[in-house]
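note to self: dont lose this again. the chain is below, predicted strucutre after it. 331 aa total, dont forget to put it in the shared folder this time
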Amino acid sequence: MPRKEGQKLKLLALLTILARETDENHPLSVPRLVEMLRERGINAERKSVYDDIETLNAIPNAPFEIVQQRGRGGGYYMTECPFELAELKLLVDAVYTSKFITASKSRTLIDKLGRFTSRYRQAELDRTVLVSGRVKSHEERILYSVDALHTAITRGWQVQFTYCDWNLQKQMVPRHGGKRYQVSPWALVWENGYYYLIAYTDGHLRHYRVDKMQQVAPLEDTAREGAEEYAGFNVNTYTQQMFGMFNGPVKKVTLKCENRLAGAMIDRFGTGPTLVPYAGGECFCITVDVQVSPQFYGWVAGFGAGIEIQSPPEVRAEMRKTLDTLETIYR
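---
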């Protein structure tokens, strides 16, 4: 092996050893580094290893630093790269709790994330995040659907897909007898643990849950439409108006809320709407645009007497009708 090529391999092998086998609690001495290089079929002298460490530390804008720990049991170790351990834990938790990533794919991704740190820190990534009612997808194709949608969005193409619903046999069944939907994709939104596609079709922007989309196919020869409509689209406003991502007519609704629910209203509608103190000081009113749907009425009912719909009259009347229906059922 030519000397220059051998030196490159030695540098790469040394970098791998430092990245995977060291951290601030597990430094390696130079004699041990020489031994580990030899185990990989690479002969090295102690002086050359010192020189290699200096070379690695001299790499411009490197996302790591090789630090010497002096004293008994000391040696060299690599600082966190390219992620801090806390950052990796955050990413692992996001993968673990994601509903659309299957359990097997989650394990694969978490294992790959663990390779960005030492094997000692990687053990700390074997975490159990408790998520109430967590249901993991059983379909790995959604990853490829997301990738296809990203490609179509980036390149300005339309897409076709079959849209499905669950049946009583817990099977995904295509809507409308397997009719192929054709839409112009504009954005992917993460909401309530699911991916939603925001797309233009039939003169409107609509959303589709990605895990219910099958056989997603970008149409390379068909340019997407709806640029003017999407230019005025605000994804935060859109998701705040909707409940459970169910569509409904947009209404400007005024809610009278107990003061203890200020945080819940801010969590739901953001800091934009004004919280107006109500007479007596124990309540406040908030006026927001919502897409009125059965899920909205269910959300209001979940707060019991803590929330009262004050206006508009038709929404208040529909809430009363909903409660009357429920009373009939539970008599």
